[in-house]
Amino acid sequence: MGGGYALERYLGAGRQVKDLDLFVRPRDVERLLRHLDARECHCERTFPHWLAKVQRGPHYIDVIFNGGNGACPVDDEWLLHGVPARVLDVDVRLCPPEEMIWSKAFVMERERYDGADVAHLLRACADQLDWARLARRFDSHWRVLFSHLILFGFIYPSERHRIPPDVMRQCLRVARQEMDEGTSPRICRGTLLSRAQYLIDTNEWGYQDARLMPHGVMTRHDASIWTAAIDEEESRPLATPADEQPA
Question: What is the architecture, at CATH level 2, of domain 1-95?
Answer without folding.
Answer: 2-Layer Sandwich (3.30)
